[in-house]
Amino acid sequence: VQLQASGGGSVQAGGSLRLSCVASGRIFRLSEMGWHRQAPGKQRELVATIYSGGTIRYSDSVKGRFTISRDNAENTVYLQMNSLKPEDTAVHYCSSVVAGIRYWGQGTQVTVSS
């Protein structure tokens, strides 16, 4: 499984960004997909997960501001980030869980200035 993330950038507080992650493989639709982030000096944390059946979970810190979605036809998972805050600044990673193994994409930097 290969994952290619894109869409990061620099925005001011209150702005929006949309991250995309394209996955290889025909088993995408069966995979649990997630977005994680890691700020400098902090541990990587889970931001949002979307399961193959459509169940979605968010961390409390992004609930109501971020939306995760997937397009199985395009093997792509998205993270729409609205009302961004400086504390959202981090490298964001997408991941896929297949047969109990988590695969990671390369990170994309999100920087939010106040």
Give the helix/strand layout:
Blueprint: E1 3-6, E2 9-12, E3 17-23, E4 32-38, E5 45-50, E6 56-58, E7 66-71, E8 76-81, E9 90-98, E10 101-104, E11 108-113
Parallel strand pairs: 2-11
Antiparallel strand pairs: 1-3, 3-8, 4-5, 4-9, 5-6, 7-8, 9-10, 9-11
Explain what the structure shows.
The structure is a single chain. The chain is mostly beta strands and 114 residues long. It is built from no helices and 11 strands. Strands 2, 4, 5, 6, 9, 10 and 11 form a 7-stranded mixed beta sheet that branches. A 4-stranded antiparallel beta sheet has the order 1-3-8-7, with no helix packed on it. Strand 4 and strand 5 form a beta hairpin. The N and C termini lie far apart (37 Å).
